[in-house]
């Protein structure tokens, strides 16, 4: 069933939400809205899959999306989790190859879709858009390089400790957007290893596990010493 929508309210709120369009004036924003439509996805539904033709920019209006890749052995690797204001599918705008990752809704999600060809024309007209996209891609590259470094040089304990400290809120709580299985994939270990190490951290008094998704950090210094 086609759930695309040209609803003006959705287009406007979506475009204004995206940091890469913050520098544009009202006329420029209107031009972006004119090449945008909205689609909704149920929890667990695929937004796009590797191998599909891209040439679109997807912007999350509401909800959360998991970006993954599948290795040659069939193992799923969680690349990142995106929320409102984040965008995906941008590489297909610049490289004429099929999409290389998968995007799956982690909850009921609304996505604004921008036509790639039209967007590239606007990027030439308004270089600020292109610069913002390059800035975001640079930050993602830095995160990817750091993840590769962690996977190759840091222990399992260090990778978990870093992930917990980075995900913690100001009150030292971690509410997982991912399942523990997805978190294990993202940090390069099996779910069994993650569960075992989290139990060890709790036994040491460094964290407290509350339910399936919540972790309270009790001793930040001890976790930081592992990194």
Architecture blueprint of SSEs:
Layout: E1 4-5, H1 8-17, H2 26-33, E2 36-41, E3 46-48, E4 56-62, E5 65-70, E6 76-82, E7 87-88, H3 91-94, E8 102-105, E9 109-115, H4 116-125, H5 127-153, H6 156-167, E10 173-175, H7 180-186, H8 191-203, E11 207-210, E12 214-217, H9 220-226
Keywords: Coiled coil, DNA-binding, Transcription, Transcription regulation
Protein name: CRP/FNR family transcriptional regulator, anaerobic regulatory protein
Coiled coil: 134-161
What does this structure look like?
By secondary structure, the chain is of the alpha+beta class. It has two domains: 12-149, Jelly Rolls (Sandwich), CATH 2.60.120.10; 153-223, Winged helix-like DNA-binding domain superfamily/Winged helix DNA-binding domain (Arc Repressor Mutant, subunit A), CATH 1.10.10.10. It is built from nine helices and twelve strands. The strands form three sheets. Strands 1-2-9-4-7 form a five-stranded antiparallel β-sheet. It has a four-stranded antiparallel β-sheet with strand order 3-8-5-6. It has a three-stranded antiparallel β-sheet with strand order 10-12-11. α1 (8-17) packs across α2 (26-33). The relative contact order is 0.13.
